[in-house]
Amino acid sequence: MPSSALLDKAAKSKYMDLETFGITQAMYIWIDGSGESLRCKTRSLEKEPKDISDLPVWNFDGSSTGQAEGSNSDCFLKPCAMFNDPFRGAPNKLVLCEVLSYKMEAVETNHRQTCAGVMNQVKEDHPWFGMEQEYTLLDVDGHPFGWPKQGFPGPQGPYYCAVGTGNVYGREVVEAHYKACIYAGITISGTNAEVMPAQWEFQVGPCEGIKMGDHLWMARFLLHRVCEDFGVVASFDPKPMNGDWNGAGCHCNYSTEKMRLPGGFDEINNAVEKLSKRHNYHIQAYDPQGGKDNMRRLTGLHETSSIYDFSSGVANRQASIRIPRHVGEEKCGYLEDRRPSSNCDPYTVTEVIARTTILNEEGDVVLKLNC
Fold first, then answer.
1. pTM (2 d.p.)
2. Region of residue 300 (left: phi > 0; alpha: psi -120 to 50; beta: else)
3. pLDDT per position as a tens digit, 255-269
């Protein structure tokens, strides 16, 4: 696998400083047919776009991204969120797009459209989300970054929120990504080293409604781009290493306005009760493979609940739903759904939470995890 770290960064920098004479470069970014990976391409605009309405619809070859047949391959990119470009600098933009078919309908992996519809229905409830994105840094050979090539580091224990050589693997990537997110305008709220060495987490939120999905997908894109510059790989695999190592999730913190107000604890408990009755429905929505990816992670070990059982509790990190201790004491705040996998689609996660807890949709499904 080629590594961009082998390329001369100094050679690139002199070109990046060239005058562009009023041209704005807009990088269009979209989710491909896997539902997990991102694609991008850039176009020139004669003036800096000030609003999403200033950006034209564009097209691409959907047969090369698993989103169309070769005989009718044109798909369309509809701009839906715009961010500052931390790699090219001002006035250049990053543009998150929905993918539409030749009929101008949402393709199968475009979950933003239905999510936006639900968020519009529940806007009076002001749903806030904050997602904790865990990921693992890998070397270009697929082995966790910094791990011995023919073995393993010491057992878990000293790596969580760690400091110091031998305890921390890849902080340079984390710091660069954090600054890139701030510059882009993403609502990033923190970061920390995780339990497994070379595993990290960043938090995005609180974001209201559809912005949660927009901001998390763009933060993921920025992470991949930063990793290009450092010659490493960011993996969102929910269980990148077998054995006695933690998996990776994307815990979703959630509240409505009523939950956040004094006395909102009853609203939180009501939401937990509703979630308990649709456990399988949510598991199916919480990873791109209908629960099969999460099955490797949600074992009841390594700070997880069992994928087959619903549970909840105050300050319990082995529960499906955790109520933070301070929320239990203050009797208002939010809940944490710990079930979403690290490779989940945040549009789907936030949509189903709103459907179950605000729109009061009912009915569960039968999981088919061993098929």
1. 0.96
2. left
3. 999 999 999 999 999
